[in-house]
Amino acid sequence: MLDKVAGYTIALQKMLEIMNKKGIETIDGEKVRIEDDFVFYFDEMLRADNMFGKGSLFEDTFPTDYPKGSTNTVVILSRYYRWDRRSTLERVYRVKEKDEDRAAKLAFVARFGEYGLRDEDLTWVTVVDPSMRLGS
Predict the structure, then answer these.
(1) H-helix or E-strand spanning residue 39
(2) How many whole angstroms separate alpha carbon 136 and alpha carbon 134?
(3) Predicted model pTM
(4) Is residue 11 packed enough to be buried (19+ CB in 10 Å), middle (13-18) or exposed (0-12)?
(5) Where exactly are the structural domains of the chain?
């Protein structure tokens, strides 16, 4: 049994561009230098905009390497997060993107479009073991 997340990826570089355009370059007066700090602050920014939680656009954020084992860091804006009894690291049962998922994506793009976010910057994915607890 594995945890599985489905949602939209946003590349770390795009996330940093949005934050810089919003004027977010420091956390508690310290210059942000490591990606974990950016991911944390991006997550907090979205929570402040009420984009997470019950009745919100997304359930949570998951920073991960995608595809697994690569050095391509992305943040998954999750629409679905569950335990999956059928998927394995080698065989993933994909979660199909639904109309309500696309509507959440469009709302997210509308909110951050003025900072350069475009529809094509967000890609629907299904990822098992997003926290990489089981290795690659």
Answers:
(1) helix 35-48
(2) 7
(3) 0.77
(4) middle
(5) 2-128
